[in-house]
Amino acid sequence: MKSELFHSTFTVTELDPYGKKFDRVSRITALSETNDIEITLDVNTEIYPLGVQDKLVFSLASTLALDGNAASADTLSRDAWRATGPSLADDYDYVMFGKVYKYDDSGPDKVSVYASFGGLLLCISGDYRRLQDLDVGMEVYLLMKK
Predict the structure, then answer these.
(1) Alpha-carbon distances, residue 109 vs 8, 37, 51, 88, 122 (angstroms)
(2) Which of 75, 77, 134, 145 supports an S-S bond with 71, CB 3.0-4.6 Å?
(3) pLDDT tens per residue across span 20-32
């Protein structure tokens, strides 16, 4: 099974474009190196500070298991994130777990996918071919590193 749903390198273009609303959270806008995908993401900047022009490796995955196998229902329901062995999260600095809640077809080739990570929001927009593995209701892990 394929665990990685999306992977790309982004450059932060804006920090709090609509003004700062919360002390510990900033909304970033970033553009992929190929300029075909844009993300808007809420980040806890108290634990993971970011600035304009920072480069990020960004990934969305369905599981943290290195072999790509999703956890069993029992493991998934409690403490799935407390992996005892190596996991995909070991390679990243910032990891969140959330759920895709909206998929918007805004043009012939462009889509926007929205996910919530405990109230921190993500909007990822771009070519539908790059985002076709994301579906409404899907639980995903967001992984980032500088």
Answers:
(1) 19, 12, 30, 31, 20
(2) 75
(3) 888 999 999 999 9
Give the Cα separation of 120 and 44 in Å (integer).
Answer: 8
Residue in the block written with tokens 């969140």: 96
Q: Per the confidence metrics, is the pTM higher than 0.85?
A: yes
* H/E element, 25: strand 25-32
pLDDT in tens, 26-52: 999 999 998 889 999 999 999 999 999
The 10s digit of each residue's pLDDT in 54-93 is 999 999 999 988 877 765 443 454 555 565 678 888 999 9
Task: Enumerate residues 6+ apart whose C-beta is below 8 A from 28.
Answer: 12, 14, 15, 39, 40, 41, 43, 50
46, burial (CB in 10 Å: exposed 0-12, middle 13-18, buried 19+) = exposed
Alpha carbons 32 and 43: distance in angstroms, whole number: 17
